[in-house]
Amino acid sequence: MTTEITQIRTPAEKALISLYASEKDRLPGNKAVKALRSQAFAEFERSGLPHRRIESWHYTDLRSQLREAAPLFTAGSSEFEDSLRHVQPKIPEGYALVLLDGTFVPELSDLDELPPGLTVRSLADVLASGDATLVERLAPKGLGTGDPALSLNAALMQGGAVVDIAPGTELAKPLIILSVMSAGAVHAAFHRSLVRVGAGAKLTLFEIVDAVEIGSNQQNGVLVIEMGDGAELEHLTRISRQGADAIIIRSVLATLGANCRYDGFALIADGGLVRRQIFLRFDGEHSAAGIRGLSLLSGKRHADTTLVVDHVVPHCTSREYFKHIIADEATGVYQGKVIVRPHAQKTDGGMKSRALLLSDSASMFNKPELEIFADDVVCGHGATVAQLDDDQLFYLRSRGLPRAEAEQLLLEAFAAEALDSVRDEGARGRLMTYVSDWLAARK
Amino acid sequence: MLEIKNLHVEVEGKKILDGLSLTVKAGEVAAIMGPNGSGKSTLSYVVAGREDYEVTEGEILLEGENILELDPSERAARGLFLAFQYPVEIPGVGTMTFLKSALNAQRKARGEDELQTPELMKRVRAAAKKLEINQDMLKRALNVGFSGGEKKRMEILQMALLEPKLAIMDETDSGLDIDALRVVAQGVNALRAKDRAFLVITHYQRLLNYIKPDTVHVMAGGRIVKTGGPELALELEKNGYRDYVSEAA
Questions:
Q1: Which of A127, A207, A216, B58 could in theory staple to A245 by disulfide, Cβ–Cβ 3.0 to 4.6 A?
Q2: Smallest CA–CA separation between B93 and chain A, in Å?
Q3: A268-293, pLDDT tens digit by residue?
Q4: Other C-beta atoms within 10 Å of B150: how many?
Q5: A202-211 and A175-181 as β-strands: parallel, antiparallel, unpaired?
Q6: ipTM score here?
Q7: How many domains does chain A contain in total?
Q8: Residues of B engaging A, defined by a Cβ cutoff of 8 Å
């Protein structure tokens, strides 16, 4: 016997359905893109917002958390034009691409002196031109298929950047993709960017999610990364300066060719409710991926890092290492899945998650998963949840450090170890300053 | 300098210190000897301010001030130093960073100016040289991967830098070979001064050959059961603690 379950739509789901209906003709794209949007939206309508009965979203019940779906500030709207006149984003040194409210804004970006081998286009232009191969690349097959947040993004994507790094190019400065939300009424943004790293190219990519004014905005962003053979990418992310009610969803869809090196590090601090999901697949042999990060959570904030690392070819190495400092009533989530397909022999996979809980009301959910179908592999995982060590605290206090200072020293040490893997020195220094300031501001 | 009056301490309802009284004068080196389980380490932790112990009765006065209500850091700033039996490893915290934070936290608490890095480095290097601590150790995370002897020498280096009024040395000789013991004892002897007191806690008489005490106290059953001069330590080495254990029980 089967039972039909009729889903009751939440107010936010209803609002998203009417949002799509009213925006779909204004969103960029030719006929083929419109078809893609409508197919993606149909998927979203079937699934609804992700909720706790969907396994991969079990600990982040967006359906109950997203109480109201905010409107878009689309390019050309008075809100968008108004904030465009006032916004002056703070950009670190590098080739900066700025997305404002989900729309790529060349005027705010730093495109005048792009070095040879680096090409930047607006997603909206690419969609309008309907370049079929590019459109296909925006949603790589087999990565995150059926994920409701990705479907929603595909249906509503307003803009983004399409970046090509020509084979063999080495960028001297980091490529920065800064996504800011303007001040004003609560609003939402859906953006998708594509970074294609040509064979043998090397660069640091720094993704920053920031705000002009700390607010409760909603962002659903996707970054597609395509690495050619022998490419090296350091991919840094900072999600910060958001209000406690902000909702940030970031998805990374990455494919690696042969002999690639991918090193990721993400700092999540002051993010409201954050879901960061990475779907990474090894398409070529002898590649290595390190996916690392640090979450700093206070108040009732929530950060969910969910990874799916797919070894489909032999001889690849993956390392995941995440740390979490969780205070007050905040919640951390780490879900790491490593899949080793039947032919992916000699895979070397290792995953670790370490959380420090600073209060009795703080929570951490760790869920490492290994799905191994090959027989000649080395894979391991470990997850710990602990509190600050009493012996260490007493030792420091007995030397004259007041409790708060002793805690700060231990927490900085815990955090700094996570940052050790960041190779770009300037970026590492700035990230550590952010971490120290965050820890110092914690009462 | 230190005056402990009728101290009663419990851990999880179990009595560890049972009416302990003890006085250590400025300039004095007092030794406390006692069998395992007599409460020696508890005494050192309680004086330093560890919270896992419940003081049910009594007082601890440092230079006349009752310190029982003070935070461990405030006790340190007032001149108390505990050399740990098992110094704690602190991964990720550089030894120099730690030394600077500790010294400046104490100076700040006393209303003194912070010490600048060059001056601090000078002092640390000088102290390290005397204790045969090589510069590489100072670059590592605090106590991480240090041998037993290195950890103990690092404790003495901290003591030299922090210049306490009262230093409690908890089983400083444990785990030391004879050469390390000599270096550590020399370090301590160099710090002996007429305005500084030492409370040396030890199980064996051996350490007292190197750090000569003025007074020896025998501790058993959670209190001081006998007090005498250096000759008392030699007598204990010969006869053991048997007499005192039965007396306390």
A1: A216
A2: 6
A3: 998 899 999 999 999 999 999 999 99
A4: 19
A5: parallel
A6: 0.95
A7: 2
A8: 48-52, 71-73, 75-77, 81-82, 84, 87-88, 90-93, 97-98, 101-103, 105-106, 109, 141, 158, 162
